[in-house]
Design a protein that fits this description.
This is Nuclear transport factor 2 family protein. InterPro entries: NTF2-like_dom_sf, SnoaL-like. The protein has a single domain, classed as Nuclear Transport Factor 2, Chain: A (Roll). Helices cover about 30% and strands about 45% of the residues. The protein contains 3 helices and 6 strands, in the order H-H-E-E-H-E-E-E-E. It has a 6-stranded mixed sheet, with helices on one face.
Length: about 140
């Protein structure tokens, strides 16, 4: 397998399971995907824009406390590339979950992640997520 195949098979598979845990209320597996070495940054779907490991832990503890009952999760990566010890992905997280105890509903978050290879392991160093808007672009050809 090539480097991109290895990245998809290992890192993205682990990240999908970590997100399933996060959207079920447990932030610990997702936080283990993150580097603890600055610089780190988050532009979150709920408006949290922050930097630094301690602040990311605080925010993701809050995020995990809001979600529960995740089901039907897919991490649909549209673009992935690796350049040296940096990688990035662009895609959508599609899942069903409950927020703040409300009934579970389908959700889509558009996400971009930046990863840094640290001691041979890919760690997230940046996440940008937003709620997918209605597509008002031109129709397909």
């Amino acid at each position: 397998m090539g480097e991109l195949d290895d990245f998809r098979a290992d890192t993205l598979a682990r990240q999908t399971e970590a997100m399933r845990a996060l959207f079920s209320g447990d932030q610990a597996p997702f936080m283990s995907m993150w580097s603890t070495r600055d610089p780190l940054s988050l532009f979150g779907a709920w408006g949290s824009c922050t930097t630094g490991s301690a602040e990311l832990n605080r925010v993701y503890h809050w995020v995990g406390s809001r979600f529960s009952r995740c089901g039907d999760l897919s991490f649909d990566v549209e673009v992935v590339d690796i350049v040296g010890d940096l990688a990035y992905t662009v895609g959508c997280e599609r899942f069903t979950a409950s927020v703040d105890g409300r009934p579970a509903e389908p959700m889509t978050i558009r996400v971009t992640h930046v990863y840094r290879r640290e001691d041979g392991i890919w760690k997230i160093v940046h996440r940008h997520g937003d709620w997918a808007p209605v597509d008002e672009g031109p129709p397909p050809p």
